[in-house]
Design brief:
The structure holds 2 protein chains of 2 kinds. Chain A is mainly alpha-helical. Chain A is built from 12 helices and no strands. Chain B is built from 12 helices and 2 strands. In chain B, helix 3 runs antiparallel to helix 6, helix 4 runs parallel beside helix 7 and helix 7 runs antiparallel to helix 9. Chain B is globular. Classes of the chains: A mainly alpha, B mainly alpha. Chains A and B meet through helix 2 and helix 9 of A and helix 2 and helix 9 of B.
Chain lengths: ~260, ~260
């Protein structure tokens, strides 16, 4: 309850700050949508030149992309640690956070909420509905619950990976260039992993498991039996990676000594 | 006077050297990007021979060269400039006896040289070892490519400067910067070569400056464009370099009159 109250207060605060720069707010929403559109254009261009991508047709790949957008929107809304190192370590704001009662990671996430990202999730749902209808996918009793569970698991995976990577800034004061580059890699989890060679498959499945935020869970709805086992494994992977992320974060905070001055 | 500008290149190079650990991880991740793109294209080609004028082997080379060129020309001048504007330090820079934009370009060049030596060349070697990349053998092609790469850097940095200076007019240009990054990556042909886009879109992109950053030099280096076509490519790059100077000069002068500092 206490945490929910904090969330509401921060959201109110967010609205106030954002309305100061109204034009930029809309530019940002549009640029988000444009980013999604570029990926969409990529899929369209691919299927102008080929019938199937590793045995998946256009509607299936589009459906996977739609699913991919849903957890990604939720993640971008609530977990945004893009400038963590510059803002909290280099400028010393971490000290302010640590003197307050709520958990430090929770405060940092709240200070960076980005609700417009949720628009992407809604568009993802619409894309899933359209391509699902094109494919004639059945709507089962478990569709909605499974969507919820898999979305939360995927968000947990993102959160775990990015929290673990961000906590590296507690160990080295140099800003790491890993985060922006990781953003490129996560996009590859939405293509049929079977097209990649063994090493990349293993990487995307077990080491930085971005295949679990796109192709595997989406395969469950697409009734791709060969990936059903992986789809069901998603919540487990989510729990494991979230635990790794939180552990390395808490461990890092304990080592944190402040930037001096 | 010129010596002072060269010092900006040198100092930025040395500053980058302090953070070189980033670039070792950069090599890994750029290689991974090339790898994933390579496998995606391989799946798209399937048994096919040619796509949008690229053979399968040329596409592999194109992907590798494009990403490695990005490793060189990419910089955050837009963010640096908008930070200077927003925290007010630009006021000090404006009264110093140098041209602010030129200094930024020099710093970008220092960073570019660093990225060239520490990220692009090692990354290229790794990519050649891992993927069937076919690089040209004639020295002329290499010399031509280096010149084109330099213009890629100039045009990309000019677009960054324009994006950064836009902070004078929209105050918070976070959204503009994000949009720029997305547009440059897609419309420069980094993600999809422009000849693969549907006809109407590629004819639009042909009159925009972005193709001069990645697509045109990449086409030359893969051997898809040869002979007189190479001079055309260079001509287009020089043309856009000159054209983009106009908005920069205009923005710079307009900005000096408009400057107001938000806090700081």
């Amino acid at each position: 309850m206490y945490h929910l109250g904090l969330l509401l207060e921060y959201l109110k605060n967010y609205m106030k700050t954002r309305l100061t720069y109204r034009a930029d707010f809309w530019v940002e929403v549009i640029s988000d949508l444009l980013f999604q559109a570029t990926n969409f254009i990529f899929i369209m261009v691919i299927f102008m030149h080929t019938e199937s991508l590793g045995g998946w047709n256009q509607n299936e790949v589009v459906f996977v992309y739609g699913f991919f957008m849903v957890p990604f929107g939720v993640f971008s809304c609530f977990v945004n640690m893009w400038n963590f190192s510059e803002r909290y370590i280099v400028k010393g704001e971490m000290d302010r956070v640590l003197t307050r009662p709520a958990h430090n990671l929770f405060q940092i996430l709240l200070e960076n909420v980005d609700p417009p990202s949720l628009i992407g999730s809604f568009i993802g749902l619409i894309i899933m509905a359209i391509s699902g209808a094109n494919l004639g996918l059945p709507f089962e009793w478990w569709t909605i619950p499974a969507l919820l569970v898999l979305t939360l698991s995927a968000v947990a995976i993102y959160t775990g990976i990015y929290t673990a990577l961000t906590s590296l800034s507690f160990y080295s004061d140099a800003p790491t260039g890993i985060l922006p580059l990781m953003y490129n890699i996560q996009n590859y989890g939405r293509y049929p992993v079977t097209i990649y060679n063994r090493a990349i498959q293993v990487l995307l499945t077990w080491i930085i498991p971005f295949a679990f935020v796109g192709i595997y869970p989406a395969a469950l709805f697409l009734q791709r039996d060969e990936m059903r086992g992986m789809a069901i494994l998603t919540p487990v992977v989510g729990a494991v990676f979230l635990a790794i992320g939180l552990f390395s974060w808490n461990y890092g905070v304990r080592r944190y000594k402040g930037a001096g001055s | 006077m010129l010596g002072a500008y060269f010092d900006f290149i040198r100092i930025r190079f040395l500053t980058m050297l302090a953070y070189r650990v980033n670039y070792y991880s950069g090599i890994l991740i750029y290689t991974l990007n090339i790898g994933v793109n390579y496998f995606t294209w391989k799946a798209i080609y399937g048994g096919g021979e040619s796509l949008g004028g690229f053979t399968s082997a040329q596409m592999t080379t194109y992907v590798a060269v494009s990403w490695m060129a990005r490793a060189f020309y990419f910089n955050n001048l837009d963010r640096e400039i908008s930070t200077d504007i927003r925290d007010g330090s630009i006021a000090i820079q404006f009264i110093r006896p140098y041209n602010y934009v030129l200094v930024k370009m020099m710093q970008g060049l220092g960073e570019g040289l660093f990225r060239f030596l520490m990220l692009m060349i090692p990354g290229m070697i790794v990519a050649i070892l891992l993927f069937p990349v076919q690089l040209p053998t004639e020295p002329a092609a290499w010399a031509g490519f280096l010149v084109m790469l330099f213009f890629s850097f100039l045009i990309s940095s000019q677009i960054n400067v324009i994006t950064g200076l836009s902070a004078f007019f929209v105050e918070n240009n976070e959204g503009v910067m994000r949009m720029k990054r997305v547009i440059v990556d897609l419309f420069s042909g980094l993600i999809v070569p422009i000849s693969l886009f549907p006809g109407w879109l590629s004819s639009v992109l042909n009159v925009l400056p972005f193709q001069a950053i990645t697509y045109l030099p990449g086409s030359v280096f893969t051997g898809r464009v040869q002979g007189v076509g190479i001079w055309n490519v260079l001509g287009i790059q020089v043309f856009w370099f000159l054209v983009l100077l106009i908005p920069i000069v205009w923005l710079y002068h307009a900005a000096r009159k408009r400057l107001f500092v938000q806090g700081g």
